[in-house]
Amino acid sequence: MITTTLTRRLGIAHPVVSAGMARVAQADLVVAVSEAGGMGCLGGVSFMPDQLRAEIEKIKAGTGNPFAVNLLLPDSLTTEDEAQWEPVRRLWSALPEHDRARLAGVEALLTPGAVARQVEVVMEAAPPAVVLTFATPAWFIEECRKRGILVFALVGSVGKAVEASRAGVDFIVAQGSEGGGHTGYASTLALVPGVIDAVEQPVLAAGGIADGRGLAAVLSLGAVGAWVGTRFIASTESYGHDAFKQRVVSGKLNQVTLTRAYTGKPLRTFRNAWTDQWESRAGDIAAFPQQYAVAGTRVETGYQEGDLDWGMMPAGQSVQIIDEILPAGDIVRGMVAEAEEIISRLHGTVSG
Ligand SMILES: Cc1cc2nc3c(=O)[nH]c(=O)nc-3n(C[C@H](O)[C@H](O)[C@H](O)COP(=O)(O)O)c2cc1C
After folding, report:
1. How confident is the prediction along the chain (352 residues), in pLDDT tens digits per residue?
2. Quick one: which of 10, 36, 40 has its CA closest to 331?
3. Residue 136 C-alpha to ligand 1 middle, in angstroms?
4. CATH 3.30.365.10 fits 5-253+319-343, yes or no
5. What are the strands, taking DSSP E only, across the chain?
6. What pTM, to 2 d.p., does this model score?
7. Which residue's CA lies nearest to atom 15 of ligand 1?
8. Which of 181, 249, 341, 352 is the most exposed, fewest CB within 10 Å of its CB?
9. Sequence ranges of the domains in the chain
């Protein structure tokens, strides 16, 4: 049994949290991880508000254990300023109806007012925890406090960690650039202790953790838990085309790259024809979130249709060490058992 501030405060058995991956982390994955004694996090950003409500209800029906919901609340998504939305709406409207229907997973990020309504849904549902990425607005944290919701902030730099710490979040997740999805440029090994030294809150580590070796390593750095994304793509309960899951299983370190080609922000994803094409003219890439609309169906065809050449398939460098699709509960239990074994072995290597 590994006990940390995270397990004690949340009342969970294991210090493992599955990342709130848009599209990939839906109710089934969250329930499986929370039932196994970790904490599952719903990839909330990819749901329109009514769907988000339904997913949270499904989680509550599936487990009585703590779970979290991930939201993105940068000004560019919460603003009601029509002029700011205009470029996104113009690109969205130009898409053929058929293509718009294939963009289900990013609609909420491209629809004015949708993120504000996601917030209302989350406040009504009051999950045990919320994980914020990109921004930690004080008004949101205050609303969470009133409802007893714990707030985690996912950050990729010491500066962002200090910002989130001052905003009053309860936990910080420091994500190194090895990680899949949107990420910064600092590596996990340097970032996690850097963040621990800079903030008072307990810190979880993310980026490149896919087994017990990674869990034991970040506990050694002083982290209170691991926030794990890519490993759970290759799980039975994750959402995603089998070709995507198989690619994670067969993937090698040099097949993932950091690119703004899909969303306008640096995203670690499998390199393919789409990323190569845009990287050769990176200056033309639009800002976040416009590039989502520019990328159009390319964003979704990875998850839905298994389009390896053009579709977005975010994944981290840990693809190198993932070689099997497993039930999410087995992943959690396997990580913890391996970490326990390593920790007790290391203990034996220290002498007077
Ligand atoms: C497919 C995928 C989708 C992701 N979507 C989100 C997201 O919607 N919100 C978010 O905060 N992070 C997202 N991330 C980043 C994860 O939350 C997490 O920080 C990262 O996966 C950790 O590194 P790892 O992949 O090496 O485990 C995503 C990552 C992946 C691989």
Report:
1. 999 999 999 999 999 999 999 999 999 999 999 999 999 999 999 999 999 999 999 999 999 999 999 999 988 888 888 888 888 888 878 888 888 777 878 888 888 889 999 999 999 999 999 999 989 999 999 999 999 999 999 999 999 999 999 999 999 999 999 999 999 999 999 999 999 999 999 999 999 999 999 999 999 999 999 999 999 999 999 999 999 999 999 999 999 999 999 999 999 999 999 999 999 999 999 998 888 888 878 888 888 889 999 999 999 999 999 999 999 999 999 999 999 999 999 988 988 7
2. 36
3. 17
4. no
5. 16-18, 39-42, 67-72, 129-133, 150-155, 171-175, 181-182, 203-206, 226-228, 256-259, 267-270
6. 0.96
7. 181
8. 352
9. 5-253+319-343
Residue nearest atom 8 of ligand 1, based on CA coordinates: 22
Q: What is the dihedral of CA 176, 192, 78, 240, to 10 degrees?
A: 40
**Other beta carbons less than 10 A from residue 279's beta carbon:** 15
Spell out the residues 6+ positions from residue 226 whose beta carbon is closer than 8 angstroms to its own.
Answer: 15, 16, 17, 204, 205, 206, 209, 214, 215, 218, 335
Beta bridge partners of 326: 235
Residue in this structure with the two tokens 């329109």, named with its chain if needed: 48
Ligand 1 atom at minimal distance to the Cα of residue 24? 1
Distance 347 CA to ligand 1 centre (A): 32
Mutate to test the pocket of ligand 1, among 21, 259, 313, 317 (most ligand atoms within 8 A of CB): 21
Q: 145: CA distance to ligand 1 center in Å?
A: 25
* Spatial strand order in the sheet of 181-182: 181-182, 267-270, 256-259
Using the mean position of ligand 1's atoms as its centre, give its distance from the Cα of residue 349 in Å.
35
The CA 124 to ligand 1 mean position distance, Å, reads 25
